[in-house]
Write a structure and sequence with these properties.
GO terms for molecular function: oxidoreductase activity. This is LANO_0E00144g1_1. It comes from Lachancea nothofagi CBS 11611. By secondary structure, the protein is an alpha/beta fold. It has a single domain, classed as Rossmann fold. Helix content is about 35%, strand content about 10%. Helix 4 links the parallel strand 5 and strand 6. Helix 1 crosses helix 7 and helix 3 packs parallel to helix 4. The termini are far apart. The structure holds NADP nicotinamide-adenine-dinucleotide phosphate. NADP nicotinamide-adenine-dinucleotide phosphate binds next to helix 1 and helix 3.
Length: about 300
């Protein structure tokens, strides 16, 4: 993978192809499991026998056994808090975050005063993580020594975002805003791994995959979307192929001793670059302040 990503040789795992896996005792929650990459994960985990809960706005897999739906609009931190309270009641082994949009060409703001990409793609995850991980730490899981949380973003590129303007209130650039959500998700893996040592924290970089993620930027059904998603579809793996590649790594016992860790689109371990401890602290501190300003307490 390009973007200056470096492999991390210290973490190797033994591949067991997905068709050999039986995940009957596994309980998985996928925040953003209604579309794209999250939906591919949901369908694949379900097909291997796992019990799955998906969170999103529009559920399309009501015909599947053992897939429950929690409807939520994660533009809103109040909704993220409600979701975290519902999920905290569940004995989960695995939590996957795939909620996301791309920042719009002109800045959008939610009813709680947050830039919309930041709210959906990053801050809602922070709120849910703070709501569920303290309870999750107390779970003894069926399959793993400790529960696992996978945060899908774009880690490993050294992208640090704009820590002094997390709400994009200064000069607006959609790309800069989106890259700040990317940095936030990488910081969230690093910070949460320190905060919750009884949970395995992992960041996933899927590379480019044809999905709806760029619709808010390119325009759904626009010619730009048609051309760009067409090229991505031709050159890159699709969401189903990506999920098939990742699933054996996500349940591998070789991950037990490693947290935090990051993986590229071939499920190879990669390095987190440039995120010093003080920078992560500053990023997360500013994020907490922003969430509290929106009126939502962080547990
Ligand atoms: N695809 C790529 O090329 C690519 C590249 C790098 C990183 N990623 C990352 O991969 C993750 C998954 O993206 P994807 O490509 O699968 O995107 P996607 O197909 O657009 O799926 C995004 C998911 O987020 C949910 N979502 C969006 N807005 C929401 C809201 N306001 N409230 C609740 N749920 C909401 C959608 O559910 P509903 O439709 O039900 O609202 C959907 O389940 C994201 O974190 C993205 O940044 C993707």
């Amino acid at each position: 993978m390009a973007f200056g990503i470096k492999l991390s040789k210290g973490l190797q795992w033994t591949n067991v192809t997905a068709d050999k896996l039986n995940l009957k005792s596994l309980r998985v929650a996928i925040i953003g499991g209604t579309g794209g990459i999250g939906q591919s994960f949901s369908r694949l985990f379900q097909s291997k026998g796992a019990e799955v809960i998906v969170v999103g706005r529009t559920f399309k897999d009501g015909d599947l056994k053992n897939v429950q739906f929690i409807k939520a609009d994660l533009d809103l931190m109040s909704e993220a808090r409600r979701v975290s309270q519902e999920l905290a009641k569940q004995p989960l082994d695995l939590v996957i975050f795939t909620t996301g949009i791309f920042a719009a060409p002109t800045r959008e703001e939610t009813a709680e005063g947050l830039e919309r990409d930041m709210a959906v793609s990053y801050l809602s995850r922070l709120v849910i993580i703070r709501g569920i991980l303290p309870t999750l730490e107390k779970n003894s899981t069926h399959m793993f020594k400790r529960p696992r949380v996978f945060i899908v973003g774009f880690p490993g590129t050294g992208e640090l975002g704009k820590v002094d303007d997390l709400n994009s209130e200064g000069k607006y650039s959609a790309m800069q805003t989106h890259m700040t959500t990317v940095a936030g998700n990488e910081a969230l893996v690093l910070d949460s791994a320190q905060r919750y040592p009884k949970i395995g924290l992992y960041g996933l970089n899927p590379g480019l995959i044809k999905t709806s993620i760029r619709n808010n930027f390119l325009g759904a059904d626009s010619w730009k979307s048609w051309a760009i998603e067409g090229i991505i579809g031709l050159w890159c793996q699709n969401a189903e192929q990506y999920a098939l590649r990742m699933l054996p790594m996500m349940v591998s016992s070789d991950l037990e001793a490693h947290s935090p860790a990051f993986f590229n689109n071939k499920a190879e371990a990669i390095q987190s670059q440039k995120f010093t401890e003080p920078y992560v602290k500053e990023f997360i501190g500013n994020s907490e302040e922003l969430v509290r300003k929106s009126g939502i307490p962080l547990d």
